[in-house]
Each structure stands twice: as C-alpha cells, then as structure tokens.
C-alpha cells in the first residue's frame, strides 16, 4: 500500500508543553479561579501540587514561540483531570478549569492557527481516572451499574482508595487511580472514537496517543485512524511507542511515534560517558552506554531501516520529554552535549520536538523534576536559546533538512557526518563529539558536496576529489 | 416591599417527572447506549438500579401531557450523576448520558416550549457527589489540592468509600456519597451562581432547589434570585422547604416552596384514618392523624396566613413526590381519597403539581418504591385519569380557581366548603369526606353564590337566602 502521512508534519517544528508548568496568565478571565492558591512556581515540582499554568498564559507566549520558529505544539493532556500531569482523565470533553476551560482552549486554538501554529492534543484512551463518570457509577452502584462492562472488573467489592484491600479491577501499571477501559466493549470503542472525532471537528490538528500498545482490541487503532482522517485527512496521529514500532507504523494506524529510538543513541553519542545513569535507568529507552560514531551510525541506519520513508518524515523526534529526565541534566549539566544533540535533532528527518524549557537551559531529573516551572527570562541561557533559534531557522530555510534523503557519509572515533539531499540541494552535517579537535576527510566526487559553512565553528577546505573538515572539540558543523 | 412572583406559575399545572422512570424511548439516538442493560421496567425499584427512562422518551410523551392539560414540568435532577435519582451531581453542565445528554435536553426544551410547556430543573447545590471533579481532586491530591476550601474537610485522610474509617468531611445527612459544599467560599458561591445563570440562559424556566435550608451562607439565596431574575425576570424559583417557609418567602429569595403544608392536612382530611402510618412517619410532613373539616379549615387558614398572596399564588402544591409515598398507597389504595385530595389540589391557589403516574393510579410506598416505572396504558386507571383531565380542564377554564381569593365558607363534621372569587366570577368547592351522604346549608346573601354544577355527583338547591348542597358519601362538588 501507498503510505500517506500529513505533509505539514514533515515541515513542522514542535514544542511540547506541559500545561501546568509553562505559563500562568496574570490576567485571570474567570472570577471563579481568582482565589485558587498554587504551589510556588519556582519550587521543586511535587507529585500532587499544581503550579497553575494555563492556556491563557500559553496564548501570551505564542509570540515567543513564533519568534523561536515553532509551528506546532504538542500539549500533554489538557482535559479535566485531578492530577497536575492530567493523565487521569475525569472528562474527555472538558478542558481543565485550572487551564481556563473550553473557552481558553478555543481562544488558544484560534490564536495558534492565526500564527500558522498547529495544535496536537494528548489522548489518554487506555485508562481513565477513578473519578471518571462511568467508572464512578460502578463505584456507586456496584453490580447494578449499567456501565459495568466499560471496565475490567475482577471481583467485589471494588476498593478504589483503600490500598489494604485488592482493587478488584484492571488498572494501568497497577495504579488503582487509573482504571483500564474494556476496549472489547463496542460502546467503549464508540465512546472513544466519538471523543477523537469531536476534538478533530473542533479544529485540533492531531492526537498524540498515550500508551497505545496497551489497547489490544482488534482493529482499534485502524478504526481510530479511519474516523479521524475522514474528518481531517491531514490530522496527525502519533503514538507513544518507545521501541520498535513497526506493528503500528504500517500506514493503517499511526503516522509516527515519539521517537525515543532517535533520542537514545543521540544522547549516548553526544553526551557519551557524561550520561548520569541514575536519570535514565529504569526508563523504556537506553541512552547509555556511550556510543562511538560507528555505533551511532549503526543505530541510526537501523532506525531508518525500520519504517517507510513517509513514516520517517512524520516521526516525532525528541531528546527528552515529561517522561524522562532532561537531556541537560542527563548530561551532567554539560551544555555542549545538549548543543550537539540539538543539532542532530534539528537536522534529522521527521519533526523535531523541543520540550518546553530545553531551549533556555531548564534542568530536570526524572519526573516530576523534569516538569519544573518555565523560568523567568533572567534565568534563561541566552546562548542555548540562540542556538535553538539558529538551528530552527536553518531547518526552515533548507527543505533538504526536512524532507531530503539522509545518508551517513563518515563515522569514525567520535566524528559522525551525514548528508541530507533533496534534488540539487545537499547539506552536510558533521559532529565531533570528542574532546579533541578533529579533522575529517570526505571523498567528494565532482561537485556533489557543499562547502559553505551554514552553522558551527568548524572550517572546510576543498581539494581535488575530497573535502577536509576541521572540527573543534565538541562542535558541530553544517555545510550547504 | 412589593413582592413579585412569575405570572405564568399562577396559571401553571405542573407534572413532576422522575426521569429514570417516566418514559424510555425505543428509538435510540445514540449508538453509544445501544447495549446498555437496565433493570426491568416493571420490577420493584431498587436503590441502585436504573430503568433507563430518558429525555427522548419524555419528548414522545409531550402530547400525552398536553392532552392532560399540563403546561409545566418539574424534573427531578437530570445532570450527570451516578445514582438513579441523580441527586449526586457529578457534572452540573452535562445532562446525564443515560438521559440522552445535552442534545436530548435541548430537543426536549424546544419541543416543550413549542407546546407552551415550561421546564423547571432541580438544582442540587448544597452538596455534590464524591466523584464531582473538585471533590475528586481533593481525594487525589489531598492537602495539595487547589480546591481544598470548596468542601468542609475535618481531618486526614479522607475516607470516601471505606466506612470503617471516619469520612473526615461534612456530608449531607451523614451520607459520605454527598460531600457538602463550603458555601462560605466565594469561589464556590460564584461557581453555583454561574451554573444557575448558564441553564437559565439556555432557556429553562426555573429552578427547584434541593434542601436549600442547608445552605447557610449569608445572602446566598438573595444573590441567587438576583442573578437568575436578571436574566429572566419570570424565572421560577421554588425551594424544597417542608415546613414554615417564611424565612425564605420574603420576596427576596424564593417565589414559592414545595407545599407539603398543603399536602399534609389535605391527605389527613380526605384519607382520614385510612392513612397507613408506616408510609408517612419519619418523613418531614404529617398527613396524620385524621382531620375533621374544622381542623382542616384551621390548617388551611393558617397556611394561607403565613405568606403574601403573591407567594401563595406561586406555591408548588402537591400531594406526594419522589420523597414521599404516593397518596394512593398512603390511603391504603382508597381511590376516593385520591379523588378528593386531587379536587382540593386542583382548586387551591398556587400551581398544582402532579407526580408522574398519580393520574393513572400508580401506587408506591416510601422511596424507592414511589419511583416505579410509569405503567403501560393497559394498566392505567381510566377513571382516575378522566378525573385529572376534567379537573385540570376546569382549572384552566376558570381563572378564579387559579388566582381568585380563597375563603372557607363551611366546615363541619367531614364536610368542607370554600369559595374562589375573582371579581364577578365565584366558584364553590365542596367536599364530603365522610362515608355517609351529607347535606350542607350555606347562607347565600343575594346572588353571590353560583348554582351550576361544574363537577361532581352532588346536587344543589337554591332557596331564599341560602343554598342547599346534597353531597353523596366521599364526593366533591364544584359550582360555578
């Protein structure tokens, strides 16, 4: 079959927002919320406290995002939920009141679209919360509830809060706060499909799907795709799959996945043995041990071999997220690691996604620490921000960086070079992850390779039939 | 001050619908609900089971209600709630999915208004449910919840379901399913006011307020009235107050109350010692012991002396409700008791309210038994239905029965007579509650009293200066 993924995604640069932590408006629209008290914005995040970021606040920062070159936002969940990360959905049709409710979201969507910024929401359809109406009805009415078959009840009585008794229902990750839907029930299936349709009709540009591998009902994600694309053929569907995702990337389900298979080797190569293992172990990706260039090339070649090129161009590439420690912290605070990884992120096929705050040097360990409040401007790392701005602009200027073919052309020691090629346009990207300056010689038959430095402190010399790159320690270079 | 109550209420005949039990559509509009299984419609009601009545079904019965002469409906709660009576509100902005959701309600409101039928909803603002979002957030986040002050937390941890531990929050009637709002919190107050405004703007014609005496915040119901009436000055506000309601009927709060002070003596007079005490004791009204006519007159005169006449005309008069046994059952199945009580109901100042099914002879003990499924036509008591139809038509024909002055003119033994007088129009209503035929002589100076029999098997003879009524045993008579 001919696989089709949304064209806009191939040209998108995403910004991932954790809504409670990005921006809190000072101009409250709702009388209702005027007296709500939050935990201190700058304090270390806790599992249960809210910092009060909201969507009105995001609207106020859209100019910042536009200036940065962002043209798509992926929001972690925004629906009504009694958790600061909002993965415990209480109501799929209501934007959380702390975020400003449906009114604020409508305003945000309009304001984003006016700036040509797409908006993708997080759909948590494997499980709901124990306060979710249909589950709550079972808690209240027991075996007489009409919604009994919506969940996986294993015995009676249910014990939603008292941990001394068995929960007696299936829940995600053995967390009784998160009862799992029974997707085999056609009503549940229809319920979820209608939610997906509703928000696509409301104008969102796609769905990021939380733990979709847990949904095992036959044909579920195929139907999901069909019904979403029937409304908007260019809607983006991206699944949270950390590993080999071929099962879901056959063109009938997702357009792409959160590309932790890119993140892991990229961190392992650029941060190398700086990686602080305590921040990455016990996670579903492996950005360690350190990789040499040859190993990095192998990992990338393998990744690029997994899926159709149309899928590759629609992957959601990332270095970190709300589910990981931040790359800066993983790298022990080493800024060059972040810079090199960011260069690789912004020159790779697929849509780069920048986790809010990474661009200004926000640190963060494993969650909840990686969900700190976005810092005030006085605390921004200006050089990191400039690097992001430059690399984003570079990507926007050069279509080859977005949809051009990718080919490794050099891998030795800690130096790695690849080309992106789109018809006549060719760019070369080189990274020296080592702590010593390096010289790289590339065979350059004819006029194939560019010689103009578009980014980076390195230098290039052209000679008969080859190119000589001089790469300072821990630096990257883009030629075009 | 000049008290004003809605004019339409003075001319209204209400029908009280318990939505789960009145009418279930056979033409399901929602794919979602097609496989929901309900308890048998005809089986005895249970505390936790649903019978699946819905608002689409009510629409299908609007012609029946119009034919009966109904021009207003009071719905017990319709908002999303995990209880068959729906007094445990889970979401004040969402009509329950089993009822057809907001879509069905919109259709119902339009269809009712097209038939000049008003719609009054039940507002449960004293307490919410333990699944209600803002309370649920406290269950999930404990002392870090931003909504802590929305309820009355008395200690930690909370125990919403495990009855072996103290609940540690204030709840209605010590029922931990029903956490009480903290109305002293200005946010809570605003939240409730906005709900009230929202549904009035959506077109409902009024609010019946559940247990409003429990809401003790200063000026709460005054503000409620101001904000509701600012949107629709003719919106009806009727409180659930079972006893002396002067505190709330001063013209600044409610237009009327559920008039159990009318129900109690009316049942005690018409059913007399037939009243089955087990169905009425432990309730907040006293339809026993049996009353003679003089005692009935005293109770009614006292009631009519309590409030301004403008209030009297806007009372919600009733014989029974979802909170009581049905009058037929209270009277031990004696139909004449129901007929006499219904005659008094439909000739009294204030809006009569007929509890669904009473008009066709549906029996029912204390709840949940008084909430049985509305019976199929084959089980209707045709004579009782005809009586309702006739008396309703009579009330609609004679304005004096609606807004004319009320005056007792005779009370002796078990015979009671009163007049309703509006300018030139005078009607006389006589009831003989005794088991023997009775003759009643009324002094009739000049031409004041009517002589034409409008209703009932009794006879009238006019003589010089007085009127002689012949009243068969257990019968009523209306002259006009």
Polypeptide structure, described:
Chain A has 480 residues and is an alpha/beta fold. Chain A folds into 2 domains: 7-126 and 181-397, TIM Barrel (Alpha-Beta Barrel); 404-479, Immunoglobulin-like (Sandwich). Chain A is built from 15 helices and 18 strands. Chain A has helices at residues 7-10, 19-22, 55-60, 62-68, 101-114, 133-141, 186-201, 220-231, 260-270, 293-306, 309-312, 327-330, 335-346, 382-397, 399-403, and strands at residues 14-17, 72-75, 79-81, 89-95, 118-123, 206-209, 236-239, 256-259, 316-318, 351-355, 405-412, 415-422, 425-432, 438-443, 453-455, 459-463, 466-471, 475-479. In chain A, strands 1-2-5-6-7-8-9-10 form an 8-stranded parallel β-barrel. Chain A has a 5-stranded antiparallel β-sheet with strand order 11-12-13-18-15. In chain A, strands 14-17-16 form a 3-stranded antiparallel β-sheet, with no helix packed on it. Chain A starts with 6 loop residues before the first helix and ends with a strand. At the A-B interface, strand 4, helix 6 and helix 7 of A face strand 4, helix 6 and helix 7 of B. Chains A, B: GO terms for molecular function: hydrolase activity, acting on glycosyl bonds.
Overview features:
Immunoglobulin-like; alpha/beta; 480 residues; hydrolase activity, acting on glycosyl bonds (chains A, B); TIM Barrel; eight-stranded parallel beta barrel; homodimer; five-stranded antiparallel sheet
């Amino acid at each position: 079959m001919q696989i089709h993924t949304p064209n806009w995604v191939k040209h998108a640069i995403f910004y991932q927002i954790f809504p409670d932590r990005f921006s809190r408006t000072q101009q409250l629209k709702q009388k209702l919320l005027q007296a709500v008290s939050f935990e201190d914005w700058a304090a270390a995040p806790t599992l249960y406290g809210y910092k009060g970021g909201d969507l009105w606040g995001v609207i106020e920062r859209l100019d910042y995002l536009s200036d940065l070159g962002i043209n798509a936002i992926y929001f972690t969940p925004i629906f009504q939920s009694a958790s600061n990360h909002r993965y415990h959905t209480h109501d799929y049709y209501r934007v959380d009141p702390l975020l400003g409710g449906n009114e604020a979201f409508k305003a945000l969507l309009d304001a984003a679209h006016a700036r040509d910024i797409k908006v993708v929401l997080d759909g948590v359809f494997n499980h709901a919360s124990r306060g979710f109406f249909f589950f709550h009805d079972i808690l209240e009415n027991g075996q007489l509830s009409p919604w009994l078959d919506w969940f996986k009840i294993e015995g009676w009585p249910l014990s939603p809060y008292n941990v001394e008794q068995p929960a007696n229902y299936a829940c995600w990750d053995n967390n009784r706060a998160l009862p799992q839907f029974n997707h085999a029930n056609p009503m549940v299936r229809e319920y979820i499909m209608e939610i997906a349709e509703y928000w696509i009709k409301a104008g969102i540009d796609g769905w990021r799907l939380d733990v979709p591998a847990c949904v095992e009902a036959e044909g579920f994600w195929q139907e999901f795709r069909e019904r979403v694309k029937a409304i908007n053929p260019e809607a983006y569907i991206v699944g949270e799959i950390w590993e080999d995702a071929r099962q879901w990337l056959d063109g009938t389900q997702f357009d792409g996945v959160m590309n932790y298979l890119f993140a892991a080797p990229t961190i392992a190569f650029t941060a190398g043995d700086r990686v602080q293992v305590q921040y990455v172990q016990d996670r579903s990706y492996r950005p360690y041990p350190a990789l040499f260039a040859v190993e990095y090339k192998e990992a990338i070649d393998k990744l690029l071999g997994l899926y159709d090129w149309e899928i590759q161009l629609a992957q959601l590439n990332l270095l970190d997220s709300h589910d990981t420690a931040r790359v800066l912290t993983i790298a022990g605070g080493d800024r060059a690691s972040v810079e090199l990884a960011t260069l690789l992120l912004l020159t790779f096929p697929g849509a780069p996604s920048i986790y809010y705050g990474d661009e200004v040097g926000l640190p963060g360990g494993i969650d909840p620490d990686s969900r700190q409040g976005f810092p005030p401007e006085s605390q921004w790392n200006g050089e990191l921000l400039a690097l992001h701005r430059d690399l984003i602009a570079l990507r926007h200027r050069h279509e080859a960086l977005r949809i051009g073919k990718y080919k490794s052309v050099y891998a030795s020691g800690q130096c790695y070079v690849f080309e992106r090629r789109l018809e006549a346009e060719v760019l070369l990207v080189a990274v020296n992850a080592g702590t010593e300056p390096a010289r790289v010689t590339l065979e350059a038959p004819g006029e194939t390779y560019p010689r103009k430095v578009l980014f980076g402190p390195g230098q290039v010399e052209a000679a008969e039939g080859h190119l000589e790159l001089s790469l300072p320690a821990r630096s990257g270079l883009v030629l075009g």
